[in-house]
Amino acid sequence: MTTQSGKPVESVWDYPRPPAVVSCELTVQIHFGGVEIASSTQSLRVLETSHPPTFYLPIESFVPGVLQPVTGTTACEFKGVAHYFDVCQDGQRAQRAAWHYPQPTAGFEPLAGHVAVMPGAMDACFVDGERVTAQDGDFYGGWITSEVVGPFKGAPGTWGW
């Protein structure tokens, strides 16, 4: 199956578990506080069963100063210990809306030096010019585009999938 633009459709149920880290050369843009705060053609996608892809951009893709480190961590059974950032721009602050893995576990080393954001906490996120829809819920950071189909984990009642 393909989208209207001719791109192949990906089912999140075909994604692996444990997740895969895949290079992405599409233009990925993040807007917050009324401006573009990050853009890259060298992002990584983390693909995991039942989740839309999470995009990780090289940290140097972000406008200096927009990522403010905060205390507290969480642990992912696959990727390791996540550290968080508030995203700040022009007096606006999205608390703990970005994260990274400074020392990812074996198999996820490419994530070092990359940052993901919660697309629902940003003004807008784009992949190759298409505005993404955020994965439901406040825990996962998946980016839904027209070429990704679910059902997706994250909405109420899906926690135990």
Task: Offer a quick outline of the entry.
The protein is mainly β and 161 residues long.
Structure overview:
The chain is mainly β and 161 residues long. The chain has a domain at 10-64 and 108-148: Metal Binding Protein, Guanine Nucleotide Exchange Factor, Chain A (Beta Complex), CATH 2.170.150. Helix content is 0%, strand content 45%. It has no helices and 15 strands. The strands form four sheets. It has a seven-stranded antiparallel beta sheet with strand order 2-5-6-10-9-8-7, with no helix packed on it.
Biggest sheet descriptor: 7 strands, antiparallel
DSSP strand tally: 15
- Total of helices: 0
Query: For this entry, what is the oligomeric state of its chains?
Result: single chain
Based on secondary structure, the structural category is mainly beta
What name does CATH use for the topology of the domain at 10-64 and 108-148?
Metal Binding Protein, Guanine Nucleotide Exchange Factor, Chain A
- CATH class categorisation of the domain at 10-64 and 108-148: Mainly Beta
Tell me the fraction of residues in β-strands, as a range: over 45%
Mean pLDDT: 93
Looking at the overall shape, the CATH architecture of the domain at 10-64 and 108-148 is Beta Complex
Computed Rg = 15 Å
Q: Which range best describes the helical content: under 10%, 10-25%, 25-40%, 40-55%, 55-70% or over 70%?
A: under 10%
Run of helices and strands: EEEEEEEEEEEEEEE
Strand order, largest beta sheet:
2-5-6-10-9-8-7
C-alpha end-to-end distance: 25 Å
Query: Uncertain segments of ≥5 residues (pLDDT<50)?
Result: none
User: What form results from the Cα inertia axes?
Assistant: globular
